[in-house]
Amino acid sequence: MKYENDIIVPQRVNFTYPDVLHILVKTLVSNYFHTHETFVSNTDFFLPVANLDSDFITVLKIRINQNWNNRNEFFFKDEAKVLRKLQDIEMDRFWSNTNYYGVNYDQNNNPTFKQLRYDSIRLRQKRQGIYVLPRRHKNRAQVTYHSVKSLEDLRESRSYILNKFFRGLLDYLNQLGLPFKHKELDMWNIDALKGKEMQKPQISIGDKSIYIVDDRMRPHIRPELETNNFADVFCTTTQSLLTEMKEESQGEIFDGKIPALNTGTAAQLPAGSYVLRIQDNEEGDFKNTYKTDPITKEEIIAEFALFKGYEDPLPKFYKAHPKLVIQTLSINDNTIARNKQQKRKKKSTPQVIWDLSNYLDYGQPNLDDNFRYKLEVSLNQLILKDVVMHPQNAQTLLPEEQLKIITNKVFMYLESLMYFDGTNLTFMPVSGNSSQAQQIIKDVTNKNLRLDVLKLAMEWYDKYQFSEEDIEDDDKVSGTLKKGRFIITEDYVWQIVDSPERMLYPDHEIESRLENLAEQRPIKDFYPKFPLTGDEPFNEQQLREYEAFLKEYVDERYISYDELKDKYGYIKERDDKGKLVRMQQGIYPIFGIKNDAKLKRYFQDFLNLPFESVRSDDVMSVYQGIWYVPQTHQYLVGDKDSRKPDQEKGFVLREILIHQGTFDGEQLFNTLNTDFFPMLQANFIRHKQYTVYPFPFNLIEIWNKIRVTN
Question: What is the pLDDT of residue 710?
Fold first, then answer.
């Protein structure tokens, strides 16, 4: 084999020599793609996400790197990209410095999708389509990381595609005698708050007055649509909603009085007032979006900004009122609808063409779960901004148990630091204020900023290629402080960094379960069996009604479990407006159930139809709660208890770098349990969820944003 200028003789390879192993593995991966994958490139490795028949093909671009801290490990980095089909006008000329992709044929005339030589593109390839990979950042694509909604969604998810690729690659390498395998981690589950405990508010806005300030675009652009005082009506309906939410939650949202909403003018409010600023636009509505012209290769406008020629009022509003505690809430449902339209994959979905006539034509917000969520998040943000702007309020606004944990610790992030001395919460910039920052760290933790913190961090970032002069280089110091999240105490210096590793779903097991749920079976298989044993979860009357319902309503001779549940769990009929409405008639009402857990148990135990859930603990346990890897000091933050059918991003492992502090395994775990993991359970940062990083870093982030804005 030959890789670039290096000749590798397999019989004489010294696998302990890292450069040889690196070259060998890359060469074998390239060979695997060309012999096993139908979608490859000569310069990059691509995996297809969906079909190859459209004008745009989504792919995962794969790169392989050796882990230089552990040279027996290799990381595969994936990035979603879009290949664009060339237009007819572009077929007359090809550039030698551009990579082209399309259907190619091997010696046996088998088609594969590969990179094409620009000097040998055939006519039939032109007819079938030639694609290019744009070299600009706008080429990024969105590929759902995990999905268990359906087999189609699962097989187009990033996790499934990568799992399938890794299984094939490992089989190939193992057959060659190379003992590569997936990295396995010994993960410990942290005893964290879950379920109802995380639902309870850890911070409360109490009976604080909140002023609703109307800063929408419509009154200035489309005043003819203003038929009433929008802010007054919004204030009244939202106040009623808060009352309703308190009654429904039985104290889980509001443990005291609900906040009093009033309309007001920002300029007349006293300093420290809480302001909920309502707007009817989204970030980006004032800026054009661009694309690359296929002929000239220049950037041209792809979509004109909706508010072209208008100034975004948000920064102006915040700068004009630096002493008010402000949170912005978008109330235009058209903005939500627009995002949903952009994210839909199906071509058949009608696309709304927005302009100022229909974009600003909206009513009062729909007081649904989405609005309730945004409202609760806005209330939490007002409290956190109050704490950041008025640190003396920390003891009355933040949970006592969390304040105890952060006492006498210095948190550094974004060239800023924060500490709590038991009485006062302090924020300050480190960059440009190094002397004072060093003195604070010395007073609080008896540590030296440049010698005990930055020197160690720089050594880690530079992979131990660090010179003593770097410690005096302000640019390097600044770069290190921007990158790192530090926790400094008298006993230790820790830094939290993102690990290059991700957790993938066990997709082969999920696929098997989805296939079982989607398998067509004779409808008779779903009929109840008589006589009863007496152990059934449903009584005889319910089962007789269920049998009669199947005979009357189900026309299919063959049906899957998913179809039975979705189509006949509840009967749906169209109302006068043509909208499907769920009727109180169907399998669920007959059995008196709200979900299918009990139904699955009946099918399995009494009809011999085992239907296993794709979101059960036995396949997704590691994605619930907080997990810790003691060997490498890594941790993973999952959901507190929910099992989402879709997840846009993968579960990222974070690593705790121990720059200073001597612990054995048990001591470190005990310290993390008391000093670290409880800070991930502050449910006021990610609403009713764990935080990915200890919550003080989020406070520093808010403080920086307010400081920059003002």
Answer: 73
